[in-house]
Design a protein that fits this description.
- By secondary structure, the protein is an alpha+beta fold.
- Helices cover about 25% and strands about 10% of the residues.
- It is built from two helices and three strands.
- It has a three-stranded antiparallel β-sheet with strand order 1-3-2, with helices on one face.
- The longest helix is centred in the C-terminal third of the chain and has 10 residues, at about 45-55.
- It is flat and about 45 Å long.
- The protein starts with 15 loop residues before the first strand and ends with a strand.
């Protein structure tokens, strides 16, 4: 599950949520959920959220596949 790289000061985490596009009752729900994870919140715009993550050396991405959602 992991391969340590002593010379790198980086941590990568992926979260897989069972479900995805094949489990949808209405087409597009998984993709909508994934896209909402990387957009604005009530208190921050999408740009402000990405800037806050970037200044800490972080990023976020989400995608809906056939049988899972990956974050």
């Amino acid at each position: 599950l992991q391969t340590p790289l002593p010379q790198a000061n980086t941590v990568a985490i992926k979260l897989f949520i069972k479900g995805g596009q094949a489990a949808e009752e209405k087409p597009g729900v998984a993709a909508l959920f994934a896209s909402l994870l990387t957009t604005s919140t009530e208190t921050r715009s999408e740009e402000a959220l990405l800037r806050a993550l970037n200044t800490r050396g972080m990023s976020i991405a989400a995608v809906a596949e056939d049988d899972y959602i990956e974050i």
